[in-house]
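Before the break, one more example. Copy the sequence into your notebook; we will annotate it together after we see the structure.
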Amino acid sequence: MKDGTRFTLTEEELQASLRLRYRVYVEGMGRLKDKGDHDRKELRDEYDENARAVVAIRDGEPIGTLRLFWGGDAPFAESLVEAYHVDLFREFLSDNQICIVERMMIAEEHRGTSVALQLYKEVMHFVLNNHVEVVLLDCEPHHLNSYLKLGFRPFTYPYTYPGIGLVLPMALITGDYEHLKCVRSPFAMLTKAEDLDHCRYVDKLLSVIENRTDVLCQSGETNNRFLESIYASRTDNERTFDTGPTVFDSLTEGEILRLINKSHIIKCKKGDHIIEKDNAARTMFIILTGFAEVRRNDQMIAMVSPGEVIGEIAFFLGVPRSASIVAASDELRILSLDDKSLSKLLKHEGELANKVLMNICRGLCARIVQGVGAGDLRNH
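Here is what the structure looks like once it is written out:
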């Protein structure tokens, strides 16, 4: 196969995309095993009949891929309409003005390179050529900052994607050129404002997505307002939690701000899977309000309280999640810490790193005292 990044044109290219899906999802992450063709080592499902695939080829092998649904090819399946909240946009748009992107994956050895951007560059060319006005996707919390930089914005409540865990619906409004420029999206360099004259519903689409999300981004708020949001449940204006040891203990306001750099507050509802068993993501979360259950084999083995950290074992050991963390109450709010910012802080800020690590250790010890066995601590 010829090297490059493109929509698949041949059966050989499509099979390369399906093989990479299998390698990354089934073999690498243990996901969607029930949908994998284990003899051919391909990951394909019934939705692929109406989808387009983009593949990146290097040295004759696939290193990146995604799939795209366009309403101009075929009507969206009802399950896609529900998952991506398509009906919110149908009030103004026809289906051929809507795209859905999913199953974006990169070979492990090429993560952190420009491969993802090259895949989305092909998507954006397709969007512009076909006068698509909104692009929809579901984003795992640890990818949120990357999609914000592209110009996507969360627009409705998070939900649990089977086998993956918590995902955040996001939308990119093609004609919102000012926003693309403001966030310095690479998409803004692919076009000019006058090339988007066909985008007639920008203001109406903005009204759909604005003030509807259950996600608050630190990058979009002042530091003081974001800190106030972290402690929003307190009625005494104290920036503390009433529970046991927390990750914020003994930290100054400046240290807390460095710890939560590029983080996000996500509101969940009872039953949402914040962390899903076997997920390979490394994101750490802090419970702000409400309670969450640690579950293994559908059995609750621990309860997590406000101020406590979840996901720390997977972050530090680099292992998949070995249990699920499920919201046990409505209006549960979590702080999603940015993996890259946190890794940089732990590497370069020794004094602050020592405080944070000590607080995490104290939290783990408290769970042991409360009766959680050491083996169960590996759940997170």
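The longest strand covers residues 61-70. The domain at 215-379 is CATH 2.60.120.10 (Jelly Rolls). Try to locate both features in your own notes.
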